[in-house]
């Protein structure tokens, strides 16, 4: 059965990458959550998507220029809705301790892409995964495929997924060349035949970001391992309906 992974939590209905969004995903029955991590100036792992805080908080500036304490003084909810005023940027440890108790999958996206180097990011994330004993629940993904290969060098077992938006030729083969065990393509970069081939070759396929009902139906019918969506409740209803038919 295709799993439903909540993109940045239930980001379509709650402020993304906050505990409110993650709790809502769990409440509606999602199989897992996806989140993003950056390094703060004091070397902590902050759960936020953008390299700056401008879009999702009441602050301004680059994540790397804040300490974790400074980041957590910002309001990460009211820019979405006044209903969520006071929501904070979580530390990865906060989410992993919660995930462990809920037995959810957690897809951690490493944001050391473009000009962001974040030395030691891979080691720090793996250390937290080990500390909370959630490796069996964890997928590590990134658009930085060099970084993913480093993750594989550091850990031989953890599930690693290449994120990509280009149309790759035989992406399952490319994934294997750098030690990745699954693929997370943008939905327009993969076909139903490619999904079936990838799954048949033992490479789980989890397309993103699947928000419209017709596309949910199409991909669930194609048999992908999971879909990543901003609207987990909607996707769960689609899956239930398809399973009944």
TrEMBL record:
SUPFAM superfamilies: PLC-like phosphodiesterases. CDD domains: GDPD_TtGDE_like (cd08563). Pfam families: GDPD. InterPro entries: GP_PDE_dom (IPR030395), PLC-like_Pdiesterase_TIM-brl (IPR017946). One of its GO terms (biological process) is lipid metabolic process. It comes from the Bacteria. GO terms for molecular function: phosphoric diester hydrolase activity. Residues 2-239 form the GP-PDE domain. This is Glycerophosphodiester phosphodiesterase. It comes from Ornithinibacillus caprae.
């Amino acid at each position: 059965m295709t799993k439903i992974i909540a993109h940045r939590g239930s980001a379509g209905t709650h402020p993304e990458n906050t505990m409110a969004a993650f709790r809502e995903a769990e409440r509606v029955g999602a199989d897992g959550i996806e989140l993003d991590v950056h390094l703060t100036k004091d070397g902590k792992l902050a759960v936020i998507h953008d390299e700056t805080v401008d879009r999702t908080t009441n602050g301004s500036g680059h994540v790397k220029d804040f300490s974790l304490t400074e980041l957590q003084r910002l309001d990460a909810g009211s820019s979405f809705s006044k209903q969520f005023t006071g929501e904070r940027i979580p530390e990865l440890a906060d989410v992993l301790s919660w995930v462990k108790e809920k037995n959810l999958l957690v897809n951690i996206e490493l944001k050391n892409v473009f000009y962001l180097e974040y030395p030691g990011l891979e080691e720090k994330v793996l250390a937290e995964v080990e500390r909370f004993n959630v490796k069996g629940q964890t997928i590590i993904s990134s658009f930085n495929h060099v970084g993913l290969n480093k993750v594989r060098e550091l850990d031989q077992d953890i599930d690693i997924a290449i994120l990509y938006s280009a149309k790759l030729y035989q992406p399952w083969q490319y994934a294997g060349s750098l030690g990745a065990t699954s693929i997370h393509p943008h939905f327009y970069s993969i076909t139903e035949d490619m999904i079936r081939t990838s799954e048949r070759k033992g490479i789980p396929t989890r397309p993103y970001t699947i928000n419209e009902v017709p596309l949910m139906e199409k991909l669930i019918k194609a048999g992908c391992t999971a879909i990543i969506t901003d609207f987990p409740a909607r996707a769960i209803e689609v899956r239930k309906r398809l399973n009944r038919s």
